[in-house]
Write a structure and sequence with these properties.
The protein is of the alpha/beta class. It has 15 helices and ten strands. Strands 5-6-4-7-8 form a five-stranded parallel β-sheet, sandwiched between helices. Strands 1-2-3 form a three-stranded antiparallel β-sheet. Helix 1 packs across helix 2. The longest helix has 15 residues. The structure holds adenosine-3'-5'-diphosphate.
Length: 319
């Protein structure tokens, strides 16, 4: 959308109705293509609205990710880190809300309630938008960004399960090899995945003070140092006293897949509105490295690795 064009949700809907579409995932909406990425109309409308109207505060930190790369975990850890001095173990917001409901999701919550930007919210904002599609105010305000990425094969398998989990029609589930070929062509929500990663990777190289680039696998393998690094980046490092009495471990336990997925709210609650509400339990599955091997053939793994390698070549980034 160019400056000067009308900026109401109605106009965004009109623009969206003219975009190229991809219907192959067969979930609750088709994907459409805008500013170089694929997106559900629902989130695109929210994203376009945010591009025009969101006024980032310099203290805002954006938690950025492609879907299924560790968003829920990153949100939970960040919420636990920034709230640790004002709540105790028994009243953390994470105990009665799914992590997605603890902070503003730019493409959804802002259009639903644009005044949320003002008072009383945490200085954390989540987005799946690619770096190049972030609202200009985020960059102008000099906001910090945290990005989390994940091996594309595991991210794909996670996405395929998620697509089954959120499907609202009675059509048969999408065969995994059909979904896989769409993914390899970049046709996935907020894809192409390689462009998503590349945008934030370059930004982190150019501006490491402002962009923290994390990997789901590092967070799983090296949880304590990674969580300490995240806390430092969020401007709330753990003091040596906190470290001594186990504050880091406590946060890690609170945010673990096991703990969160066993909370009542995440077993039985729903995220989002009535039409396309997503059962919270769909956000929690295995959380393992290499689960793709249970679903994809070695040849498929190689195909996706090759696509990624080709697209990322020359960037200095490898998975
Ligand atoms: P799997 O489907 O491989 O199990 P996102 O949060 O971006 O939607 O990503 C979802 C993936 O993160 C899922 O991976 C899910 O199981 C995993 N996940 C969710 N919460 C987690 C947590 N607290 N710790 C580790 N992994 C988590």
């Amino acid at each position: 959308v160019e400056n000067g064009s009308p900026k109401t949700p109605g106009t965004f809907k009109e623009i969206i109705s003219t975009l190229p579409t991809e219907n192959g995932w067969n979930v609750f909406q088709h994907l459409c293509f805008y500013q170089g990425f694929w997106c559900f109309p629902l989130h695109l409308e929210g994203g376009m609205f945010a591009q025009h109207h969101f006024k980032a505060q310099p203290t805002d930190v954006l938690l950025c990710s492609a879907p299924k790369t560790g968003t829920t975990w990153l949100k939970a850890l960040s919420v636990a880190i920034v709230t640790r001095n004002c709540v105790d173990e028994s009243n953390s917001p994470l105990l009665n809300k799914v992590p997605h409901d603890c902070i503003m999701f730019l493409e959804k919550d802002f259009i639903e309630n644009p005044t949320q930007t003002d008072q009383g919210r945490l200085p954390l904002v989540a987005t799946h938008l690619p770096y190049t599609a972030l609202p200009k105010s985020v960059l102008d305000a000099g906001c910090k960004l945290v990005y989390i990425c994940r091996d594309p094969k595991d991210a794909f398998v996670s996405l395929w399960h998620f697509a089954k989990g959120i499907k609202v029609n009675n059509n048969p589930n999408l065969p995994i090899d059909v979904a896989f070929q769409l993914y390899c062509k970049g046709r996935s929500n907020f894809g192409p995945y390689w462009d998503h990663v590349l945008g934030y990777w370059k930004a982190s190289q150019e501006n490491p003070e402002k962009v923290l680039f994390m990997r789901y696998e590092d967070l799983l393998r090296d949880t304590i140092p990674q969580v300490k690094k995240l806390a430092e980046f969020l401007g709330q490092p753990f003091s040596s006293k906190e470290e001594k009495y186990g504050a880091v471990e406590k946060i890690i336990r609170l945010c673990s897949l096991e703990n969160l997925s066993n909370l009542e709210v995440n077993k039985t609650g729903k995220y989002g509105n009535a039409d396309i509400g997503i059962n919270n339990n769909v956000y929690f599955r295995k959380g393992k490295i290499g689960d793709w091997k249970n679903y994809l053939t070695p040849e498929m793994g190689e195909q996706l690795d090759n696509v990624m390698e080709e697209r990322l070549s020359g960037s200095g980034f490898t998975f």
